Amino acid sequence: MDYFAQQLINGLVLGSIYGLIAIGYTMVYGIVGMINFAHGDIFMIGGFIALITFLLLVSLGLTAIPLILLLVLLVAMAVTALYGWTVERIAYRPLRHSFRLAPMLSAIGMSFVLTNYSQVAQGARVKPVPPIITGGYTLHEGAEGFAVQLSNMQIMVVLVTIVLLAMFTWLVSRTRLGRDMRACEQDQTMAALLGVDVDRTISMTFVIGAALASVAGMMYLLYYGQVDFNMGFVAGIKAFTAAVLGGIGSLPGAVLGGLAIGLIETFWSAYFSVEYKDVAAFSILIIVLIFMPTGLLGRPEVEKV
Amino acid sequence: MQASRTAGIPFILKKAFLSACVALVLFSLMIGIRTEAGPDGQLTWWTRFGDLASIVGLVFGGSIIIELLRQWLGPIGAEKLVPAPVQRGLSLAGRFLGPALLVFTLLVPVIFYNQRYILDLAILVLTYVMLGWGLNVVVGLAGLLDLGYVAFYAVGAYSYALLATNFGWSFWVCLPLAGMLAAIWGVMLGFPVLRLRGDYLAIVTLAFGEIIRLVILNWQSLTGGPNGVSGIPRPTLFGIPLDNSDDGLAAKLGIDYSPTHRIVFLFYLILALALLTNWVTIRLRRLPIGRAWEALREDEVACRALGINTTTTKLTAFATGAMFGGFAGAFFATRQGFISPESFTFQESALVLAIVVLGGMGSQLGVALAALTMIGGFELFRGLETYRMLVFGMAMVLIMIWRPRGIIGHRAPTVYLTKAQAISSDLVKEGHG
């Protein structure tokens, strides 16, 4: 039971990170109708930016951990958002009206560019950081000396996810930008006729998605204590699975799907085999797409002739 | 024209300046600062402002050049029908380029007999030509976007490697078996994805490819895991080995043994396999099943309305494509003598798909030329291993922006009323499967 509770906590934390990445997939798919293959790599870039900013701030002599974390968060979000914007501007916007395969292939190319760019720029070796947020609580002392731990780090990851999700739900449902986004999602031509700047709205979608992915990257860095140039691909596919599972185009669905994928992966590793945890995630992707393509909270897609 | 260009200079400079500013922000942290893990796990960092400055300068200069080119060339108009003279030229070139290339390929081992490097490269190019033609059946003809094609390549390679090392079966027995096993896997993938289309199909095939690779990687008792399978037997000329022994081919023919014999044999083997793929594809296109594939690519709903069985159509496309992938895999295993999961990553799938797309999807000659360009281009960057994939990714993005329809962006229709008129590929659909 204790073991189960511990895995539940770990799974929820991992799921929060996937959920943050999945939001980027779901928003882009909802509006542009394409799988942003490079999104996983944006998450990886976010992790690297956070790492470098952190190093710089520590070297400058800052010691207050909360201040450092806040600054790292802001810098990582800003710079990674610019990456998202640039990727959209270079690789996707010229292909807006091309045939359907074109943006997808362009996105795959962009994913290779980002992965290998960070390998060239920062080297191939794993970059470790010492634990920054330490301490935690022991929730339950088990019989065989196994204790259920809840670390401060885990609390922070979940809190940040909840706060960001609340912020962006408000953004999409209450602000002008959110209204523009929903309008573009329904009908781009009509939205343009009614005075919505479609290009700008799509750009902003990518910017927001990238900013959230950078937060996920930073959480990953703090939680696992390392980043490497290769971590974007698998994390990206899992987050995409989460987005599909939750119902693509739905913001709460993305987080729900993320939590589900995080839990499944953690329990699979804990009770079956660690080696096959990625196989489990990929199998879920296939099963969900085949049997439940609209996901948990999605709307069914009607085929028009 | 002149006036508009001179008036544009402040605009161009402003644009270039903005691009440089964006580049500065993008690269300041990632390139301006280099981190590395020290020996005791402590992170160290140093600055590289020189590199940063040169890259930002490059972006500034590059965006001026791009903007000038854009003004000079004007907007790229979308041509629907290929103009008649161009069409005549293309069909003429198409008529002669193919046979000329084939004759040249046949003569490659004669011309470059003493240049092992060129022969090896030619074998590699032909392997990708074959893979490209195999995937072309699925993506180009049937319009089913497959991002996991490398899975079938892996199935073929491991089938041959395991059958040959465990049971000592010869290459010629294993080759059809490898193709059949890959085809079975193709059907197994095909069944569940029958209802999926477009992006979802792509992502499921990608997941399938990754699953196969992960299983190969982790099923240590069967596949040797990350260590791979080594000591895979070399192919024989129908039982006659190509080695230095007494029953070797050289001894039987009474000529001096040379290791090049085997390379030349491998060259003609893969050439024959590739030509088989090409021939089968061309023949199938003229059969009802090929017509059904192309109809499926254009419009699935109309296809169903006309009474075409989309299930068998899709499954045969997957199985045929997978079978050729399996053949290529078996060849790869026998050529390398050693295989490991590292050879079957997603990057390989993307490379083959890029070859098919660059080749114009559906054009056999285009795919062959694209394979030559891509693999040749890769060889140019041989010394710069880390930059290779970076350049490959950039090339993929640029090709999509510049010529999303590939080098040969036109199609000769299979069925026509009075005369065959090539149409621009803009008029055909892909990936809607």
TrEMBL record, chain A:
Protein localization: Cell membrane
Segments passing through the bilayer: 12-35, 42-62, 68-87, 99-118, 153-172, 202-223, 280-298
Primary localization: membrane
GO biological process: D-alanine transmembrane transport; L-alanine transport; L-isoleucine import across plasma membrane
GO MF terms held by the record: L-isoleucine transmembrane transporter activity; L-leucine transmembrane transporter activity; L-phenylalanine transmembrane transporter activity; L-valine transmembrane transporter activity
Cellular component terms per the entry's GO annotation: plasma membrane
Family per record: Belongs to the binding-protein-dependent transport system permease family. LivHM subfamily.
Protein name: Branched-chain amino acid transporter permease subunit LivH
